[in-house]
Specification:
By secondary structure, this protein is of the alpha+beta class. The chain has six helices and 13 strands. Helix 3 packs across helix 6 (178-191) and helix 4 crosses helix 6.
């Protein structure tokens, strides 16, 4: 599948602001599941873009606007070819739960077993994870059981939470959006020492235009495998991956600071469609 994506963010300030410094995580990755055919990033007011790789190997674009401005527009456009195969073959390659101890000693897993800003450790998460995985002897099957639990336990409710809602808050209220579903699944996995990370990206479905979030869990000798608790499924070719981290705090699409008024509005528009021809002008 080839998808064209336009992600536009518009900030409007009540009074002109200045010395705006921003980091963007908006460019999809190219890996074995997807290839970025082209990507364009536009900023208004015009600014010089610099790139660097963050601690979690995400591509970050940085820019600064020092002159006074009343609006800031950031637009990311790209076309991505996806070819994600399903991992039903894992049914034939069980990974015993006893191998979780190996993950604790792996550098690549360390950060994804600790609590983080939006995913604190809690007795409630541990109790639910233990109850949900009771009788499971395989890491992947345990992770899928937790994935199904989150999907059935939380109600998808737009505007019921905010970008600052933690996994424990969403769990207590039993409502949330994809970000909350991902945080709760991560918390459940980590509470029983299943390494889990947060993935930001997009999910293509006609009529639904928004960013998306899901989870990857680590299995010894197999690697990171994806689960989407919002849809109780495994990501396929409709998913486009951008960045990974401990939680949303590590992968926010736009983040920055400036001098000036705190009164502002933010408008985010995402358009995803199947590509039909050559690069749009």
């Amino acid at each position: 599948m080839r998808l064209e994506i336009c992600h536009r963010t518009l900030y409007r300030y009540a009074q002109p602001v200045k010395e705006s410094s921003n980091d963007l995580r908006l460019k999809p990755v190219s890996n074995e599941h997807q290839t970025v055919e082209w990507h364009e990033l536009t900023v208004q007011p015009t600014a010089q873009l610099r790139t660097y790789e963050d601690f979690y190997a995400n591509m970050v674009h940085h820019f600064e606007v020092n002159a006074p401005h009343s609006e800031l527009m950031i637009e990311s456009r790209c076309r991505v070819a996806t070819n994600r195969r399903n991992y039903l073959d894992l049914w034939a390659t069980p990974v015993p739960l006893s191998r979780r101890a190996e993950c604790v000693r792996m550098e690549r897993c360390f950060d994804y077993l600790q609590e983080s800003t939006y995913v604190p450790h809690s007795p409630e998460l541990w109790r639910l994870a233990v109850d949900t995985t009771f009788g499971q002897a395989d890491m992947w099957q345990a992770a899928q059981a937790l994935n199904r639990f989150v999907h059935s336990h939380l109600a998808y409710t737009p505007s019921a939470t905010t970008a600052l809602t933690s996994a424990t808050d969403a769990l207590e209220r039993r409502v949330g959006v994809c970000q909350d579903f991902a945080h709760v699944l991560i918390g459940l996995c980590r509470s029983i020492q299943l390494p889990a990370l947060y993935v930001s990206g997009y999910f293509y479905t006609p009529g639904a235009q928004a960013s998306h979030a899901w989870v990857e869990v680590y299995l010894p000798e197999i690697g990171w495998r994806a689960l989407d608790p919002t849809h109780a499924d495994q990501p396929d070719e409709r998913y486009v991956k951008i960045a990974v981290g401990r939680d949303y705090g590590d992968v926010a699409p736009t983040r920055g600071h400036y001098k000036g008024t705190v009164q502002r509005t933010i408008q985010v528009d995402v358009d995803i469609r199947e590509a039909t021809g050559t690069k749009q002008s």
